[in-house]
Amino acid sequence: MGEYTSNEGFFKGWNNSMDIKSLKPFGQVKLNEPLAKHTTFKIGGPADCLVIVEDTDKLVGLLKYLDGEGTSYMIIGGGSNMLASDEGFQGVVIKVHSSKFIVQGDTLIVDAGCIIVVMAQESIKAGLIGFEWGVGVPGTIGGAVRGNAGAMGGEIKDVVEKVEIYRDGEVVTLNHQQCHFGYRDSMFKHSRSVIIRAYLRLQKNTKNTKTLEPMKKALEYLQYRSKTQPQGWANTGCIFKNVDLEGKPGEAQRLRLLQHFDAKDEKVQEFLRKEKISAGWLVEQAGMRGVRVGQAQVSERHGNFIVNLGGARAQDVQSLIARIKDKVYDRFGIKLEEEIQII
């Protein structure tokens, strides 16, 4: 998942008088760098300055420096699960590329920039289970923790023990409860905190550390994603959150579902059992499969994906998102909520 944190609104904009040389000790510096090069959607205008940081200590140093200078900054990881503006970003974009990790007993200690897919594979190699679902998930651990990423019934919150963050000039550690995880949500989406490291508590494979069962499960997940999700087109993952059927608001959604569809339908029964309605299914039922705005198109394969046919602009995607939300609400009275971050 593409981690995004910004201090925009707290500090003044890009300090053009800043000596660019002062940024070079922290990582590779690029000026007027198109964000389209750093997002899986291949969309996004230029950042005034982009710094690629490969070391966690240097990341903390850079954050302290920019805070001291009063410069706006934004954090990205793998660049998925986000839509970058056509206008780009006025300030410094920090691309977290740190990749150190340690296996300590049943715990995986990982830098925020570690790739989810790689960490899922490493956990299997180490004889640990519980993170197999990550083999097909794009992005970084930092982004996954920030958005409580999940797939195939698993979520990162299920394995997070604690998280180290940068906040107000200090590195502090939050326990699981302090992260306030929710469905595709956490406290990190609502604060200036920057995730720098995560501790993932997994389970020892007690049957046999050399068994192929975890790898077989991972391959099954990959095959399923390949069959059900768009291939060959740039995209940013699921656009909308699935609709929750739990609690009082969920009761209203449940009634709307039963009002419009046969309760005996297998798909409807599945939603009722899981207490979530598939957003992609609602999009398709609203007749939006394959609909285009400019070079952005609702995937023919999965209604919860928008693909870039080549040269799509953020404006195209946002217009398409608005049309989808209107169609679904007009048809079913259900308000879809974006999963992606629009910046």
Which features characterize this protein?
8 helices, five-stranded antiparallel sheet, single chain, 343 residues, 3 domains, alpha+beta, Uridine Diphospho-n-acetylenolpyruvylglucosamine Reductase, domain 3, Uridine Diphospho-n-acetylenolpyruvylglucosamine Reductase, domain 2, 28% helix
Descriptive account of the structure:
- 45% of the residues are buried.
- This protein starts with a strand and ends with a strand.
- The protein has three domains: 92 residues, Uridine Diphospho-n-acetylenolpyruvylglucosamine Reductase, domain 2, CATH 3.30.43.10; 121 residues, Uridine Diphospho-n-acetylenolpyruvylglucosamine Reductase, domain 3, CATH 3.30.465.10; 112 residues, Alpha-Beta Complex (Uridine Diphospho-n-acetylenolpyruvylglucosamine Reductase, domain 1).
- Helix content is 28%, strand content 25%.
- The strands form seven sheets. It has a five-stranded mixed sheet with strand order 1-4-6-3-2. A five-stranded antiparallel sheet has the order 7-8-14-12-13.
- It is of the alpha+beta class and 343 residues long.
- About 2% of the residues have low confidence.
